[in-house]
Amino acid sequence: MLEALNAEVWDKSRVVLVMDHYVPEKDAGSRKIVQIARDWARDQSLPYVYDGIGICHVVLPQKGHIRPGMFCVGGDSHSPTGGAFGAYMFGIGSTEMLGVLVTGQIWVRVPETIEMHWSGPLQHGVMAKDMILLMLGRFGMNGGNYQAIEFSGETIRGLSMQERMTLSNMSAELGSQVGLIAPDQTTVEWLRSAGVSDLAIDEIKNFTTDDDASVTHYEFDATRLDPQVAAPHSPANATSVKVHHGLAFDVAYIGACTGAKLHDLQAAADCLRGHRISPRTQLMVAPASLEDQRAAEADGTMEILRQAGAQLLPNACGACAGYGATIPDGARVIATTARNFKGRMGSPSSEVFLASPYTVAASALRGVITDPREVLA
Amino acid sequence: MNAGNFVHRIWRFGSDIDTDQLAPGAYMQLGIPEIAPHCLESVRPDFASGVKTGDILVAGENFGIGSSREQAASVLVCLGVKAVIAPSYSGLFFRNAFNVGLLLLTCAQADQLQEGEHIQLDLKNWQIHRGASQPLFCTPVPEFLMEIVSAGGLLNHLKALQNKSRGTH
Lengths: 377, 169
Known about the structure:
The complex is a heterodimer of chains A (about 375) and B (about 170). With about 375 residues, chain A is an alpha/beta fold. Chain A has helices at about 1-5, 30-45, 55-60, 95-105, 130-140, 155, 160-170, 185-195, 200-205, 255-260, 260-270, 290-300, 300-305, 355-365, 370-375; strands at about 15-20, 50, 70-75, 90, 115-120, 150, 180, 215-220, 230, 240, 250-255, 280-285, 310, 330-335, 350-355. Helix content of chain A is about 30%, strand content about 15%. In chain A, helix 5 (about 130-140) packs parallel to helix 7, helix 11 crosses helix 13 and helix 11 packs parallel to helix 14. The radius of gyration of chain B is 16 Å and the shape is globular. Chain B has 7 helices and 7 strands, in the order E-H-H-H-E-H-E-H-E-E-E-E-H-H. In chain B, about 30% of the residues lie in helices and about 20% in strands. The interface of A and B includes residues 4, 77, 140 and 341 of A.
């Protein structure tokens, strides 16, 4: 396409290429797609290329490419994940990405701000995934109306960086353009460990919402939040796990940018430590990045998952969108992923329930949908 | 304005039509012409084979929710769909549609349009004409987006801009 326009990339130092959707290549079609990307990266001598080491939304910050105050676009709908770091980041399609590569420019309609303010601590066994599913149940899949959502309050301040990423990631499902979280000490420390060494705590003070800004404000109480489960075929079909308690299923899936980061793997391991999963089900785990998988190997998390009977998949988008591995026809799945549209995981006859890594692991243990607080107690 | 101008046949869909319904993930490694026959097959199997050039798709709230895949819009262009009319769209889909040359009209009264009805678009006054019934009103589309969609999408628009700038040097 660049050739068709007879144009050059406007600034290669501002381009990062991550190959995650079609890797590892399972057939001729995916091989061809990945080869096009690899050839292009080589011909262009792109400075930042990450091939098969994880999902872009997780790899980008881990490699130090995201920082507070940045304006970025990504070629995938879960690009608002960057909002967890205070970056105004959103997803665009491939043609629009071509426009950005050529011109370095894009249009944005100035958004309104919708503040989701959370108070109180989460119970043990309840996590960011449950918070975002609750918000989806309340506001629906286009509740964000392509405006800017900001997640705020003491609950958010208390979340780890990867938990914050889960919230911003699924702001895509809420239909907002971005899902922002004001950067703080947690952000700075995490980014420093990712190699962003020149980020001063003073610098981030600018990236907060002004006191006098016009904001639509919603309040949530984290202390009373039950683990949530979204029934097929919409993430907005979210209710308390209690509603689906005891429902049998075939596959438990821990994967995706939404639900297979180190923190997610550790949460699953908390439920599975010293146990084996129910013989009625199978557990598939696709760690979101190689770096997260290595860290989970180092701290014993992966060993717990393997001992429990988990089947390990590559560090890629995997079965989440039916690109990589697929779920069998007619299977009922409980997954840590972000979407459960009809046919999303490959088969139109499969049913996908969305839940947190705690809930998916606890359910794998019992073979039926289970409140993780029962297992963790 | 005569009856011959009411050339756009309406295909009605419900709310929350998502990108996996428009361009199913299982076919995403194929080209647009190969994905197109599967467009909306999970909700309406007769659509892709029955739709004709110039037809218009009318839907409920939140059309195009889901992923950033612009194939979801491209397959509609490929099938000859002239425009989509709905009360609201996914923001991402909205961008993609114009970038691949698909006109989206935002119309709060879209639910009044009937399956099989033939309509006429008046893009100067942002009205939908329906013969005997009162016209419906659409939200005006910004001029720069109309330029992109009129060029047949962003790629053609960029080409035209380049030719223009080369022509002036």
